[in-house]
Design a protein that fits this description.
Strand content of chain B: over 45%
CATH architecture of chain B: Sandwich
Distance between the termini of chain B: 30 Å
Oligomer: heterodimer
Largest sheet of chain A: 5 strands, antiparallel
Helix content of chain B: under 10%
CATH class of chain B: Mainly Beta
Number of helices of chain B: 0
Strand content of chain A: over 45%
Shape of chain A: globular
Number of strands of chain B: 10
CATH architecture of chain A: Sandwich
Number of domains of chain A: 1
Number of strands of chain A: 11
Largest sheet of chain B: 4 strands, antiparallel
CATH superfamily of chain B: Jelly Rolls
Number of domains of chain B: 1
CATH topology of chain A: Jelly Rolls
Order of helices and strands of chain B: EEEEEEEEEE
Helix content of chain A: under 10%
Number of helices of chain A: 0
Largest interface: A-B, 66 and 61 residues
Order of helices and strands of chain A: EEEEEEEEEEE
């Protein structure tokens, strides 16, 4: 079993920048063994400002192992096919704002999975937006 | 106008029905719909074990749009860097791992910092942004 993620970045900001094309296989910490657990793919519809938990670490049905090699993928997919690039949702970890995912933006981030380090989403406006996400982790 | 795009393909066979997700986004300035990011910082550093270091030497202005890519090119799978923002632990990137996050650097303390573990880690990073607070000499 394997979980892989490939990123491709292209940019013409600087002439001569050849882009970035990298792949990774998600493995358990410090080993070449494939990562073994996932929350599965989920969507969350948000229609008001105010931070909500996307992932509440203490409430996961399968307890994630702390401080190892967990990852989360999150994307702002807009609402009903309409993606507004000018409006974003702030993704946070344990109340620390990491950054704004504007319409269509995605992120892949490592996680500690410590109980206090919940993953939050806080829309910038009351416009309805849907966030999709999936977490990969090691079972404690 | 500059254009920066970031695409990802994510596959997994952990579930009964194999998962395959593809997404692509054009990185634009905050509050705009098509005005692309115009500046970037691209580097490669070797970080010895020990102290915590800021990966980004300059701080983009808060409330603007930034995207940060970091990859650990260490070939030893036991090596890793611990990543923090504003003292909040984010997670670990082991040898071969990468991450791609929005980074709004909401205050002067919200730098991205890394600590090397296991041995000297080889780190590639790219910050795409729309403005930097330059430091006068």
């Amino acid at each position: 079993m394997a979980t892989t993620a490939t990123i491709s970045i292209a940019s013409d900001i600087v002439p001569g920048f050849g882009g970035i094309n990298e792949s990774m296989t998600l493995t358990q910490a410090g080993t070449l063994t494939d990562i073994d657990s996932t929350t599965g793919f989920a969507r969350r519809k948000l229609s008001a400002t105010g931070a909500v938990d996307l992932v509440t670490m203490a409430n996961e049905l399968v307890e994630p192992k702390d401080s190892v090699a967990a990852k989360i993928y999150i994307r702002n997919i807009g609402y009903k096919g309409v993606i507004d690039k000018s409006v974003g949702v702030t993704i946070g970890v344990n109340a620390e704002p990491i950054g704004l995912l504007y319409g269509g933006d995605w992120m892949m981030m490592p996680l500690t999975c410590i109980d206090a380090d919940d993953i939050t989403a806080n829309p910038a406006t009351d416009d309805t937006v849907v966030i999709e996400y999936v977490m990969f982790f090691e079972e404690a | 106008m500059a254009t920066t795009t970031a695409a990802v393909t994510l596959t997994s066979d952990l579930l009964s029905d194999n998962m395959s997700v593809s997404a692509s986004t054009t990185c634009v300035k905050a509050g705009t719909t098509a005005d692309g990011l115009t500046q970037m910082e691209y580097g490669y550093v070797e970080v010895a074990t020990g102290d915590e270091y800021d990966l980004i030497a300059t701080t983009p202005t808060a409330s603007k749009a930034s995207k940060l890519y970091v990859k650990n090119h260490s070939t030893d799978e036991t090596y890793y860097i611990a990543i923090t923002q504003n003292t909040q632990a984010i997670g670990r990137l082991y040898g071969g791992d990468w991450m791609f996050i929005p980074a709004d650097f909401h205050d002067a303390a919200a730098d991205i910092a890394i600590t090397s573990n296991g041995g000297t880690n080889k780190i590639e990073y790219a910050l795409f942004h729309e403005g930097t607070v330059l430091v006068t000499t």
